[in-house]
Amino acid sequence: MSAEEKENNKPGHFINTIIDKDRANGKHGGKVHTRFPPEPNGYLHIGHAKSICLNFGLAEEYGGPCNLRFDDTNPETEKMEYIEAIKKDIKWLGFNWSGEICYSSDYFQKLYELALQMIDEGIAYVCELTPEQTREYRGTLTEPGKNSPFRDRTPQENRELFEKMKAGEVEEGKMVLRAKIDMSASNINLRDPIMYRIKKAPHPRTGSAWNIYPMYDWTHGLSDSFEGITHSICTLEFQDHRPLYDWYLEATHVPHRPQQIEFARLNLDYTVMSKRKLIQLVEDKHVHGWDDPRMPTIIGMRRRGYSPKAIREFCDRIGVTKKDSCITMSTLESVVREDLDETSPRAMAVLDPIKVTITNFPEGEVEKLSAQIHPKKEEMGRREIPFTKDIYIDREDFMENPPKGYFRLSPGGQVRLRYAYVITCDEVIKDDQGHVVELKCTYNSDTGGGKTPEGMKKVKGIIHWVSATESLKSEVRLYDRLFNVPNPLGAEKDYLEYINPESLIVKKNAYVELSMHGALMGEHVQFERVGFFCVDYDTTEENLVFNRTVTLKDAWLKQNSGKS
Ligand code: ATP
Ligand code: MG
After folding, report:
1. Of 452, 558, 96, residue with least CA distance to 308
2. Residues 439 and 480 grouped into a single domain
3. Which residues make beta-bridge pairs with 548?
4. Which three-class secondary structure string do you get for 72-88?
5. pTM, whole model, 2 decimals?
6. Other CB atoms closer than 10 Å to residue 81's CB: what's the count?
7. Which of 35, 39, 229, 326, when mutated, tests ligand 1's pocket best, judged by the most ligand atoms within 8 Å of its CB?
C-alpha cells in the first residue's frame, strides 16, 4: 500500500504520519524496522503491552521486522527468570520477533571500542569527581554547570585510565567515563553525560568479563544503529534525551542513523506500573506473585482470564498520542467484558449457598432440563441442567424482610428458577444463632419452560440456582482492583496503605453446574447473573478453582460514585 492509499484507508496516529512521510521521501530506502527493548528487571505489564502492540504492530503494518532486544546493562537488577518470562509474554500476546533475540550486552565490545575511539578523538574523558561533586558541577535548570577539573586529560591518559577501569583495577564509584559535550548546554542531558560506570557485579550473560557497564543513553541509540532500526519508539520522558541520542550517533560516525520518536506512556488508574513498586508488592507478599490476578502484569492478566485479543484491542482503542493521560480501569474491563461475552459458554454457579428443599419434588429423582450454552449462539449447542429435590440458591437472592419492589425470594413469596420452575417459599429454617440455613419451598410443575399458567400472576424475579446433589463443589476467587484510590502513588500516604482489602475474596463453598465438569485451565465461563470467570491453574482433581475475570457490569463505578 502506498503512503497515499494508507492515508485514505486508515485513521492512523502521529507515528504513522511520520513513517509515511519518511517512506514518501525514501528515507532508509522506505524500510521500517522497529524494536521492543525491555530491561529484564521485572515482568512485563500492560504498559509494556502498549509498546509491544505499537512496535510489533507498526512493523507488521509496513512489512518490516521488529527486534526483541533485552536492554541488559544493569547487572544487579537483571535476571534470566525475567528474560524467559518476557519472551513468553510477547508470544502469548501474539507477536513474534524477527531473527535472533538481541541483547545490549552483545554490543559491549563494540561499544567499548567506540568509546576508545571517542577518547582518541578527544571527546570522552575519565572523570574522578565524586558523585556529589558531579552533581554540584552539573549546575541546575537555570544555571550552567562547571567544567570538571579532569576534563582536559590527554587522550593517552584517558585511554590508560579507561583500560584500568575495564580491567577492574579501579574501585566502584571512583571513576567514570564521560562524553565531552558542553557543561553550559541548556539541556542538562548534554552536560558531559556519563557513558560508563564501574560495577563489579557479575552479569547474567557476560559473567565477570566486564567491570564497566555502559549507561542507557550511550547504549540505546548505538544498539538501534547496529541493528538497523529505522524508528526507535520510546516514551515521552526520553524526549529531552533525544539530542544526546543524536549526538552519540554523530560522535561515533556510525553509518546508520535511526530516529527516536516519543509517545505518551500508558497510565491506568487503581494500579501501579513502576517495576520497582511491582517488585515490592511481590517481594513483600502483598500479592501472591507476579502472576497474581490483581497485578497489572501480562502474566497476572492472563491468569485473571484476560485474552491476548482483549489486551491488543484495548491497546488499539486507547490510541497513540503525545499527551500524557490516565486511562480508567473501567475502559480495560469493558473491552475484556465485550470479548468474553462473545465467546464464553454460560453456566450457573452459587457462590454463597443457602439450601432450598423442594418439598413436593420426589426424593432421588433427577429431572433433566436444558439451556443454550450461549444465549445468542445456538451453534454452541445446549447443556443439561439437572433439577432435584435439594438445590442451592445464592444468599443474596433471599431476603427475610424485603423492601417494596424486591423481586427475589422472600418468605411466602415466589421466584422463578432460571431454566426451571417457579417456587414458593413456605418455611424458613434457622440455626441457633438465627442464621437462615434452609428454605422449604414448593414448585409449580406447570411453570416449566418459562410458562405462566392461566390464572397465575406472572413472577417477575428470576434467580440462578444449582442442584445440591448434581453439581460440582468449587472454590471461587473474587478479584477486584488492587488499590482503592485511583492514583495510589499520588495520594497522601504511602501507596501500600491504599491496597484494597477486598481485592481478593475467596468463596470456598461454591457450587457450579455439572456442565463445568472437566473444564480446562484457563477456560472461560460466564456464571449467569454473577460475572465472567476462568479456571485457575490451582485447579486439581479434588478442587476446581475459578477466578473472577470481570463482573457483568461496572459495579465499581456504581459503588464509588454514588451515581447510576
Ligand atoms: P520502569 O521505569 O518501571 O523500570 P521501563 O519503562 O524502564 O519501566 P523497560 O523495560 O525499559 O521498562 O520498558 C521497555 C519498553 O516499554 C520501553 O520502550 C518503554 O518505553 C516501554 N514502556 C514501559 N512502560 C510503558 C508504559 N506504561 N506505556 C507505554 N510504554 C511503556
Ligand atoms: Mg527503562
Report:
1. 96
2. no
3. 533
4. CCCCCCCCHHHHHHHHH
5. 0.94
6. 13
7. 39
Residue 35 in domain: yes
Phi–psi pair at 303, nearest 5 degrees: -70, -30
Angle between helices 46-62 and 80-93 (to 10 degrees): 60
**Model confidence over 388-442: pLDDT tens digits?**
999 999 999 999 999 999 999 999 999 999 999 999 999 999 999 999 999 999 9
Region 165-187 average pLDDT: 98
Is the same domain home to 152 and 301? no
* Ligand 1 centre distance from Cα of residue 263 (Å): 11
**Does residue 270 lie in a domain region?**
no
Same domain, 201 and 253: yes
Domain final residue, candidates 263, 284, 309:
263
Within 6 A (CB) of ligand 1 lie 37-39, 47-48, 50-51, 71, 234-235, 265-266, 273-275
pLDDT in tens, 32-80: 999 999 999 999 999 999 999 999 999 999 999 999 999 999 999 999 9
Range of the domain at 186: 3-263
Domain CATH number, residue 556: 2.40.240.10
Determine which residue's CA is closest to atom 22 belonging to ligand 1.
48
| Cα gap 50→265, rounded to integer Å | 8
Q: How many angstroms does the Cα of residue 38 sit away from the middle of ligand 2?
A: 7
